[in-house]
Amino acid sequence: MPHVSVNGVDLYYEESGQGTPILGVHGTPSSAVMWADAATELARHGRCIIYDRRGFHRSAPPRPFATLDLVDHVDDAAAVLAALRAGPAIVIGRSTGGLIAIELSRRFPDKVKALVLLEPAFFTIAPDADAWARGLRRRVLERTDAQPGLAAEIVIREALGDATWESLPAGLKQMLADTSHAVLAEINGHGLDLSDDALELNEEQLAGIRRPTLIVSAEDSPEACRSVNARLSGALPFTHTVLVPGGHLINPAHPAVLDFIDRNAGPDPWA
């Protein structure tokens, strides 16, 4: 399996297609496994790179991390692009991956050509969403105190509903369950959506993210996700928003995303 060594860890990645780099950043709990079909379609529109973030699935070390911080994931994303000589990229982030994409564009603007934010887990931007996320964090910690291996399942059941978890194939459930150590490491770390000190950015910092941005919301997602997107669309300077059917696991290769990629693949974005 292909791995790239960055920042002291070996990260599993897949690459296909040619042209403008497209980097896919998965959520929590998740893996690039859940982007496989989308990557096939994205590769028809550019050089698609997807990877398992540190601690998750094929990028999990023999000894799990005790904590994982937002800065770890952001530095890893930048290092993957550098190691593969694949920047600047159109970065697609789903859920926690969207939070990582936002901070990547702020800290490494030279690595980012444009942003696609699929309901980014940037809950601190909206008071109601922040309260929802803090409640979710508390419930996850309470319910995993005696059974930490259930962390991934509990996050999905609490955030997306029992029906979402029950609808998953058995093999996918097991893969997600195996990421529970990474889920708890992020909760116990810094800067991530369910961390005690989740990332906060002021108006000036958000206005400084001067990249074309597509913000995608789903009709059946938690209200907190739509609240975040409403705030972001007013805070980021160059945004386009779209509402799609379905729930929080938005297709990274939705037609609206592909159209955005095609319009921003050239030398003069949004010309």
Automatic annotation (TrEMBL):
Database matches in InterPro entries: AB_hydrolase_1, AB_hydrolase_fold, AB_hydrolase_sf
Alphabetically ordered keywords of this record: Hydrolase
A Pfam cross-reference name: Abhydrolase_1
A molecular-function term among this protein's GO annotations: hydrolase activity
Signal sequence segment: none
Domain called AB hydrolase-1: residue spans: 21-251
PANTHER family xref list: AB HYDROLASE SUPERFAMILY PROTEIN YCLE (PTHR43798:SF31), MONOACYLGLYCEROL LIPASE (PTHR43798)
Name under which the protein is recorded: Alpha/beta hydrolase
